[in-house]
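Run log, item B.
One chain of 272 residues. Sequence copied directly from the ordering sheet:
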Amino acid sequence: MSIPEHLEEKQVAENIRLHDRLAPRYDALHGEIFNDVEQARLNAALKEARDLLRTGTNPPHALDFGCGSGNLTRHLLGLGFEVTAADVSQGFLDLVSNRYNSKRLRTLLMEGGRMCHLPDESFDLVAAYSVLHHIPNYLQACRDLARVCRPGGLLMLDHEHTEKFWSGDPVYDEFRHRALKFDWRKYLKPENYLHRLVRVFNPRHSNEGDIHVWPDDHIEWHRIRETMDELRFDVVVEREYLLNRKLYRPDVYRQYVGRCTDTKMMILRKRS
């Protein structure tokens, strides 16, 4: 969905405001990311990406685009990368700097979400995890990420919903019905009542400024593939998976792994 430029700027500014405020408790709010199953999957995917690099750089340099609280940064440092952790939120960058005291890490504030000051072909791995749905023009963001990727390097896009999630899947619906545990704690959070009230007047209001998270406006993977093909990128890994959430019953989750998916990862290599 196309968004006018003045609305893009407004949405980015609101995103910055929200995430500066949420930074200290971001991990606690996102059990779908910070759980053992998802962290193990993510680490394995980043290892796979490292082994697929064809740039010859040692050590390789990674851009953690939209680094948030440093989820990818932690894994990338552990895998031997030099890392530039970039975000629009200074609150997140301060958090990352304090968490990971490494000579192989630097942080970068992206003013208004723009990357124009980054040199062309300056990174071996460019990774965006759970980021694209926060960006008004996510296809332009993919073009920007492609520009800073070296030939033989990789672009890794991860943790965005699959097309099947939006089109519907009876098996997935059955899984959600069986797997979700009742969460009584949500009734103790005053902010939940406030967000519900705001949604009465603005049905597209989301707690953390998400944008492309609606049935009629979501990340379209086929458009990403078409865009990246035009920019001389080839898909080397394309994988769908069933995202684990802390509210899922573990035994039910294990029963449905391999039977349904809701999330996707794509790794693309830039042609030499």
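Observations after the first pass:
- The chain has a mean pLDDT of 91.
- DSSP finds eleven helices and nine strands in the chain.
Flagged for discussion on Thursday.
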